[in-house]
């Protein structure tokens, strides 16, 4: 999907709602043609606005990670460059072996360097176009109040990823998304205030944002809050912030009780508990444990995680019976339980238990890709270091990659 002048023209008036041409109750999905979807969104249909924003958000993520490139571009930018580097290594080894008695090898190395420089410039040009298109896609999502688009663009500015670092702009976007109830944005705001990035450092404001996110079921924010209460400061430093070892224990233990053993949330909780226990007397642990059980129940209710739940309710072991969107929605459910910064920290064996074996696997360099064939295409997932499942999801067909 490309951002054409026609599509941009259609989306410019998304917030200026005219006479509705569709019923507010009418629903739209990924099968709806883009032009139809844009017109319905312009008319104010909530389902159309949500689906349109989702599509542009998905496009932006693919543009940012490079998976939206045509196969030909991938071959030119990756395979040809790798081949040149391999040739250069051979010439270098030859040159080093013969020392200065091999001017031919030195000349060939220079030639490879010149060719590599051309590929670097071409890659930079392609990436520049991709990031511009990605930001354009995210801007459309932001106009539609899509908080995921706000958080993703804010994170680009916060990290300086392929755009000039701009903490102030990141804070502005995080605040907008947090105002719409996005838990990830709330947690990021806590970090921005806690570290004084883009705003004047204010630990009280940071705590407020972490508390809001934690109260709504954001496990990571609960973990940060527990650590701050245990350490008396940020990043493991005692900065004179009021300590509350018992509350830190309650939050940390609640994270362990509310999450699956071995998950990042479970590990975060364990770290907080270990720190807090050093400052608690044995007779304080029993009431703290009782309070932690209540807090865990609250966390489960706020996050939608049920006690003993290990995965989504739909049958992911038969992906051919469900659509890509259903599969990705379920995957998002898994991420809610196990996610850390957009990655699913989960063992392969646990993932296979929930989703079954992949229909196809492919190894590219150090990366391993799994493919699950759905009713309307494939889902691609990337394995990180052969152990944890990465969050990259690419729709399409395995033969395209």
Task: Summarize the structure in words.
The chain is an alpha+beta fold and 401 residues long. Among the domains are: 5-67, no CATH class; 217-308, no CATH class; 319-400. It contains 15 helices and 7 strands. The chain has helices at 5-12, 34-42, 46-65, 71-98, 103-143, 147-159, 167-179, 183-195, 203-215, 219-231, 245-258, 264-277, 282-303, 324-338, 348-355, and strands at residues 339-340, 343-347, 360-364, 367-374, 377-384, 388-389, 394-396. Strands 1, 2, 3, 4, 5, 6 and 7 form a 7-stranded antiparallel sheet that branches. Strand 1 (339-340) and strand 2 form a beta hairpin. The longest helix has 41 residues, at 103-143. Mean pLDDT is 76; it is low at 1-12, 14-20, 305-313, 335-345 and 386-401.
Give the CA-based shape: globular
Oligomer: single chain
- SSE class: alpha+beta
Span of the ends, CA to CA: 17 Å
Helix-strand string: HHHHHHHHHHHHHHEEHEEEEE
Give me the Rg, rounded: 25 Å
Strand proportion: 5-15%
Number of strands: 7
What would the average pLDDT be, to the nearest integer?
76
> If helices are DSSP runs of H or I spanning 4 or more residues, what is the number of helices?
15
Low-pLDDT stretches: 1-12, 14-20, 305-313, 335-345, 386-401
Q: What percentage of residues falls in helices of 4 or more residues?
A: 55-70%
Major β-sheet profile? 7 strands, antiparallel
């Amino acid at each position: 999907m490309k951002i054409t002048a026609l599509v941009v023209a259609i989306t410019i008036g998304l917030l200026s709602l005219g006479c509705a041409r569709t019923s507010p109750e009418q629903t739209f999905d990924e099968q709806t043609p883009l032009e139809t979807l844009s017109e319905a969104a312009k008319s104010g249909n909530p389902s159309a606005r949500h689906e349109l924003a989702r599509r542009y958000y998905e496009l932006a993520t693919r543009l940012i990670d490079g998976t939206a490139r045509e196969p030909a571009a991938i071959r030119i930018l990756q395979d040809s460059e790798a081949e040149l580097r391999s040739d250069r290594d051979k010439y270098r080894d030859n040159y080093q072996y013969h020392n200065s008695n091999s001017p031919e090898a030195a000349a060939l190395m220079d030639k490879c360097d010149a060719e590599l420089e051309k590929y670097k410039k071409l890659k930079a040009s392609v990436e520049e176009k991709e990031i511009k298109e990605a930001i354009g896609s995210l801007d459309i999502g932001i106009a539609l109040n899509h908080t995921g688009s706000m958080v993703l663009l804010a994170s680009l500015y916060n990290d300086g990823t392929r755009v000039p670092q701009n903490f102030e702009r990141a804070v502005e976007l995080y605040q907008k998304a947090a105002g719409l109830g996005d838990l990830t944005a709330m947690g990021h705001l806590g970090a921005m205030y806690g570290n004084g990035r883009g705003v004047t450092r204010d630990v009280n404001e940071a705590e407020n944002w972490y508390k809001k996110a934690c109260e709504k079921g954001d496990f990571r924010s609960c973990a940060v809050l527990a650590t701050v209460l245990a350490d008396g400061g940020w990043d493991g430093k005692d900065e004179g912030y009021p300590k509350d070892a018992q509350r830190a224990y309650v939050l940390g233990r609640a994270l362990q009780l509310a999450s699956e053993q071995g998950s990042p949330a479970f590990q975060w909780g364990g770290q907080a508990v270990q720190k807090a226990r050093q400052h608690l007397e044995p007779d304080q642990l029993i009431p703290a444990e009782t309070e932690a059980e209540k807090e865990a129940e609250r966390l489960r209710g706020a996050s939608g995680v049920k006690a003993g739940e290990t995965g989504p309710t739909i049958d992911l072991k038969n992906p051919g019976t469900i659509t890509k969107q259903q599969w990705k929605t379920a995957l998002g459910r898994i991420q809610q339980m196990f996610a850390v910064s957009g990655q699913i920290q989960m063992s392969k064996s646990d993932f296979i238990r929930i989703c079954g074996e992949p229909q196809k696997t492919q190894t590219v360099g150090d990366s391993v890709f799994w493919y699950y064939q759905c009713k309307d295409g494939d889902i691609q997932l990337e394995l990180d270091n052969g152990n944890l499942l990465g969050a990259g999801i690419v729709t399409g067909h395995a033969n395209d990659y």
